[in-house]
C-alpha cells in the first residue's frame, strides 16, 4: 500500500477548559491551533485519573502515565496505584528487599529520601508515613529523612504543610527506642531530582546535602524554609538545599552500613541519584565519599538498565507497545524532543524502557535543553526541534514521527502566566511550520497533549476578593486530539490517551493489535 507518513505532535501540558482566569491555552494568540480545531476532525480526550491508570479521578495527569498510555494503547495500573495496593495488603513488607533494608538498618540508620508531598506524580507522603511506622514496628531504631520540597505538583508554597505533617508523625513515634528526624532537604528543581542528564550539578548538590551533610545549616526544616523564602521569595521547588544540624553537627549523614530508600515511585527524576548510590564506577561527579549502603527504590525505574537493582514494588510490566508493534511491521520511526522531554518520547513512550527495540528502524534525536529558569526562555528549543523534525520529514526516511514540545508544561510549571503565553505561542508557530512540511510530504498529522498545565495558571481562590495565586501544577482537564490531512471521521465516545495508539496504527493502514483500546476512527 502507499502509506502516508504520520506525524504525531504532543504539546506537553496543554489541556482544554472553558475557565477563563489564568488560561494561557485560551488566551495565547494561537491562530494555527485554532484553525486546526475549527477545520479538522477533533475531540477532547481524557488524560488524568483512572483513564491513565492512576488511583482515582482526583489525580491529575502527568507525563509518565500520559506517555505510557500514548505509547502502548492500553491502561496499566501505575506506580501510584501499585504502591497503594502493596502497602494496603502489606505485600511490600514481605518483599526480600524490605527485609534486607530493615535487617541492615538495625544498629545503623534507615534513610528515606524523596519528594515530600501528596502530589502523587513522583511520590505520596502517605507511602512514607506507612513505611516509617512499619520500620519502627520492626525494630529499626534510627530513621533520617531527606526531604525534597515540591511546589510543582502541589501549591507552590505548601511545603510547611507536609513538613508539619511528617514532623508530627516523627514526634508521635519518637521514644527511647526510636529516634526519627529530618536531616536534610531542598527544592526539587535545585537538588537531586534532575532528569535525562539535563543538569548533573543538581544531583551533585543533593549528594553533598544528603550524604555528606555539607551545606547551609539550620536548626529545623521550618527555619530553613522560612529563611530561604524571606531571602529569595521563590516557590518551594526552587528553595536551595539545607542541612539540619545540632551544635554544628549534621543530624543524619549517610554512612557505611546504612539503608537508603528512595520513596519516589516515578523514574525519570530518580535515575541519576540512584546511579550515584549504586554505581561503583561513576564519573558524573566526584562523590567524595561513596558509602556502602543497602539502596532501594520504591519501584525499579528503568526496566532495561535495571536501575535500581533493588526495589520494593514491582512496576507495571508494560508490553505490546506501539514501538514494538511498528518494529515488527518494519515501520521506520523517528522520535524527537529537547532534553527535558527527550525521555518522555523515548523512555516513557516505550513503557519506561530506555533501549530501542530495533536500532535500524528507530531514530531518536535529542536537542540539548537550556539550563535556565524556563520563564526566562519560554520559547525553549521549539525552533530547533522543528528544524530537525522538518528535515527528517523532508528526507522521507521515516513512516512515523513523534515529537514533544515541552513549552506548555515546562513554562507552565514556573507559574509565570506571561511567559506561558509566549510558550504557547511558540508551540503554535511550530505547528504552522509542521503543517506546511506535512503538506509537502503528504503526511497526516495528529496533534494532542499528555495532560493539562498551561490551561490553569491560577490557583482556585478561596474568596472571590482574594489575590490570584500562580498555579504551577498539572490539571485535571482533557486534552485536544486532532487529525489533519486524512479523510476520516471520529466516532463519538468517551476516549482517553490510551485510544491514540490504535487510531495512529489505523491511520497507517495497520490492524489494531489485540489487547489495545479501540481506535477513535469511525468505520467508513
Ligand atoms: O516535572 C515533572 O517532573 C512533572 C511534574 O512533577 O511534570 P511532567 O509529568 O510533565 O514531566
Ligand atoms: Mn507532560
Ligand atoms: Mn509537567
What structural keywords apply?
2 domains; globular; 2,3-bisphosphoglycerate-independent phosphoglycerate mutase; 17 helices; 2,3-Bisphosphoglycerate-independent phosphoglycerate mutase, substrate-binding domain; BPG-indep_PGM_N; Alkaline Phosphatase, subunit A; binds manganese (II) ion; seven-stranded mixed sheet; 524 residues; alpha/beta; binds 2-phosphoglyceric acid; 34% helix; single chain; nine-stranded mixed sheet
Structure annotation, total helices: 17
**Structural class given helices, strands, pairing?**
alpha/beta
Heterogens: 2-phosphoglyceric acid, manganese (II) ion
Indicate the low-confidence ranges by residue numbers: none
- Envelope shape: globular
Looking at CATH, the homologous superfamily of the largest domain is Alkaline Phosphatase, subunit A
Number of strands: 16
Number of domains: 2
Based on CA atoms alone, the radius of gyration comes out at 23 Å
| CATH architecture group name of the largest domain | 3-Layer(aba) Sandwich
Largest β sheet strand count, sense and barrel closure: 9 strands, mixed
The portion of residues assigned to helices is: 25-40%
CATH topology label of the largest domain:
Alkaline Phosphatase, subunit A
Q: What proportion strand?
A: 15-25%
Distance between the termini: 18 Å
CATH class of the largest domain: Alpha Beta
Average pLDDT metric: 97
Quaternary organization? single chain
Function: Catalyzes the interconversion of 2-phosphoglycerate and 3-phosphoglycerate.
Organism: Holdemania filiformis
Binding site for substrate: 122, 152-153, 188, 195, 266-269, 341
InterPro entries: Alkaline_phosphatase_core_sf, BPG-indep_PGM_N, Metalloenzyme, PGAM_B_sf, Pgm_bpd_ind
Amino acid at each position: 500500500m502507499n502509506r502516508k507518513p504520520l506525524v504525531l505532535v504532543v504539546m506537553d501540558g496543554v489541556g482544554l477548559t472553558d475557565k477563563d482566569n489564568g488560561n494561557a491555552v485560551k488566551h495565547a494568540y494561537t491562530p494555527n491551533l485554532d484553525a486546526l480545531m475549527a477545520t479538522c476532525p477533533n475531540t477532547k480526550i481524557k488524560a488524568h485519573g483512572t483513564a491513565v491508570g492512576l488511583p482515582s479521578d482526583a489525580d491529575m495527569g502527568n507525563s509518565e502515565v500520559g506517555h505510557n498510555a500514548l505509547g502502548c494503547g492500553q491502561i496499566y495500573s501505575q506506580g501510584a496505584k501499585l504502591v497503594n495496593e502493596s502497602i494496603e495488603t502489606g505485600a511490600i513488607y514481605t518483599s526480600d528487599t524490605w527485609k534486607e533494608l530493615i535487617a541492615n538498618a538495625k544498629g545503623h540508620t534507615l534513610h528515606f529520601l524523596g519528594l515530600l508531598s501528596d502530589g502523587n506524580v513522583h511520590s505520596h507522603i502517605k507511602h512514607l508515613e506507612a513505611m516509617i511506622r512499619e520500620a519502627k514496628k520492626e525494630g529499626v531504631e534510627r530513621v533520617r529523612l531527606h526531604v525534597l520540597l515540591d511546589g510543582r505538583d502541589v501549591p507552590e508554597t505548601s511545603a510547611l504543610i507536609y513538613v508539619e505533617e511528617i514532623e508530627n508523625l516523627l514526634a508521635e513515634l519518637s521514644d527511647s527506642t526510636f529516634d526519627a528526624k529530618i536531616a536534610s532537604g531542598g527544592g526539587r528543581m535545585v537538588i537531586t531530582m534532575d532528569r535525562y542528564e539535563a543538569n548533573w550539578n543538581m544531583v551533585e548538590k543533593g549528594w553533598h546535602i544528603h550524604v555528606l551533610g555539607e551545606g547551609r545549616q539550620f536548626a529545623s526544616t521550618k527555619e530553613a524554609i522560612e529563611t530561604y523564602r524571606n531571602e529569595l521569595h521563590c516557590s518551594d521547588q526552587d528553595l536551595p538545599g539545607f542541612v539540619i544540624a545540632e551544635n554544628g553537627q549534621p543530624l543524619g549523614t549517610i554512612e557505611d552500613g546504612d539503608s537508603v530508600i528512595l520513596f519516589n515511585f516515578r523514574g525519570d527524576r530518580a535515575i541519576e541519584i540512584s546511579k550515584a548510590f549504586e554505581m561503583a564506577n561513576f564519573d558524573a561527579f566526584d562523590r567524595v565519599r561513596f558509602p556502602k549502603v543497602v539502596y532501594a527504590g520504591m519501584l525499579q525505574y528503568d526496566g532495561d538498565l535495571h536501575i535500581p537493582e533493588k526495589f520494593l514494588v514491582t512496576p507495571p510490566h508494560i508490553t505490546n507497545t506501539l514501538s514494538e508493534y511498528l518494529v515488527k511491521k518494519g515501520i521506520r520511526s523517528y522520535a524527537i524532543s529537547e532534553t527535558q522531554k527527550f525521555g518522555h518520547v523515548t523512555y516513557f513512550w516505550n513503557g519506561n524502557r530506555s533501549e530501542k527495540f530495533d536500532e535500524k528502524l528507530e531514530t531518536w534525536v535529542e536537542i540539548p535543553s537550556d539550563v535556565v529558569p524556563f520563564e526566562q526562555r519560554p520559547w525553549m528549543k521549539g525552533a530547533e526541534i522543528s528544524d530537525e523534525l522538518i528535515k527528517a520529514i523532508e528526507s522521507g526516511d521515516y513512516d512515523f514521527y513523534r515529537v514533544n514540545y515541552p513549552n506548555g508544561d515546562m513554562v507552565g510549571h514556573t507559574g509565570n502566566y506571561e511567559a506561558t503565553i509566549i510558550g504557547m505561542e511558540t508551540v503554535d508557530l511550530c505547528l504552522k511550520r509542521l503543517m506546511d512540511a506535512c503538506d509537502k510530504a503528504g503526511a497526516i498529522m495528529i496533534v494532542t497533549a499528555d495532560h493539562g498545565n498551561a490551561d490553569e495558571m491560577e490557583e482556585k481562590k478561596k474568596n472571590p476578593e482574594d489575590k490570584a495565586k500562580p498555579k504551577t501544577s498539572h490539571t485535571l482537564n482533557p486534552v485536544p486530539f486532532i487529525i489533519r490531512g486524512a479523510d476520516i471521521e471520529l466516532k463519538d465516545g468517551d476516549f482517553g490517551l490510551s485510544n491514540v495508539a490504535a487510531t495512529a496504527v489505523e491511520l497507517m493502514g495497520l490492524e489494531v493489535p489485540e489487547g489495545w483500546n479501540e481506535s477513535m476512527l469511525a468505520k467508513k
